[in-house]
Amino acid sequence: MTQCFSLTETRNWCYRSTFTGAGLRSTITDLKDGTIMHCWIPKTRTESKPNLLLIHGLGANALWQWGHFIRSLTQLFNVYVPDLVFFGGSYTSRPERTEGFQAECVMKVMEMKCVRSVSVVGLSYGGFVAYSLGVKYKEFVEKVVICGSGVSLEEKDIKDGFFPVSDLDEAANILVPQTPQKLRELFGYAFFRPRRLAWLPSCFLHDFIHTMCREYVQEKRDLIRAIAKDRNLSDLPKISQPTLIIWGEHDQVFPLELGHRLKRHLGDNAQIVVIKNAGHAFCVEKAKEFYNTLKSFLVDSHS
């Protein structure tokens, strides 16, 4: 039976309208190397405003992850919101799966859009990409915000049982869910009070998976495997930009200790803010607190 109505796609349409109403437009950039990148950019760039790059994580697309904040942020910044490779309208025929490759692709888009400097915010997987941008492009990136992103994890952490799920393949199956059961497991790990989502019927979960999670499944799982492969804290370069680390107190995807570990690694150059009574999805659970913390660091502070 053909599906006639999709709640998920309807919400996608609403978020696209929100982005358009906030002064952004959808663009496609051919990097001429087998890679196509989709990015939301300002319809008209205001030279007096600073530039802000927002990088999404896994799960729902960039529209869903940034839609709640986009109107407020576009009042303060020229905002750029790319789809990472294998998400939304971005894809590649190249074999690379590292966050470094993702960072290179985002940087090429920024160069082709004539963006000369940005502050960058990365959610979860997007935090790995944001950190890599800070390492690779020191002169381009002014400030870095890492949100619940296990940049400081080591490959041995997985084997040592540091995470609730110690099998990387199983973790990839949960983070890129293909059944309502796996999506419910993801909710359980991502939210501090997942019971609030227990009422969602399976038909809605099927709809979400069909709309959001059916493309590039293997490629996304390869991205997850790549972030842990041969990873050691001693090999992690220190970024020089002022850095804000934001974490949910009860994060089960990337435990809070990883945030403190990153703070110790970066030293006085970084500050950490722990959002109480929130999990990995703190930007949803504590949206106002998250936005105020972000604004304080990016706008109100002069560090």
Report on this structure:
The protein has 303 residues and is α/β, with parallel strands linked by helices. It has a domain at 24-42 and 50-154 and 232-301: Alpha/Beta hydrolase fold, catalytic domain (Rossmann fold, 3-Layer(aba) Sandwich). It is 42% helix and 17% strand. It has helices at 7-21, 62-66, 70-76, 99-112, 125-136, 155-159, 168-175, 180-190, 202-212, 217-228, 257-266, 282-285, 287-300, and strands at 24-30, 35-42, 51-55, 78-82, 91-92, 118-123, 141-147, 243-248, 270-275. A hairpin with a 4-residue loop joins strand 1 (24-30) and strand 2. It starts with 6 loop residues before the first helix and ends with a helix. This is Alpha/beta-hydrolase superfamily protein. InterPro entries: AB_hydrolase_1 (IPR000073), AB_hydrolase_fold (IPR029058), Meta-cleavage_hydrolase (IPR052370). Residues 52-290 form the AB hydrolase-1 domain.
Quick overview:
The chain has 303 residues and is of the alpha/beta class. It is built from 13 helices and nine strands.
State the CATH topology of the domain at 24-42 and 50-154 and 232-301.
Answer: Rossmann fold
Quaternary state of the chains: single chain
Q: Which architecture of the domain at 24-42 and 50-154 and 232-301 does the CATH hierarchy give at level 2?
A: 3-Layer(aba) Sandwich
Ends apart, CA distance between termini: 57 Å
Order of helices and strands: HEEEHHEEHEHEHHHHHEHEHH
Helix content bin:
40-55%
Number of contiguous helices:
13
* Percent of sequence in beta strands: 15-25%
Write down the CATH class of the domain at 24-42 and 50-154 and 232-301: Alpha Beta
Helix-and-strand structural type: alpha/beta
User: Largest sheet, if any?
Assistant: 9 strands, mixed
Which stretches are poorly predicted, pLDDT < 50 over at least 5 residues?
none
Average pLDDT reading: 93
Number of strands: 9
Say which CATH homologous superfamily of the domain at 24-42 and 50-154 and 232-301 is assigned.
Alpha/Beta hydrolase fold, catalytic domain
**Morphology call:** globular
Rg over C-alpha atoms, rounded to the nearest angstrom: 18 Å
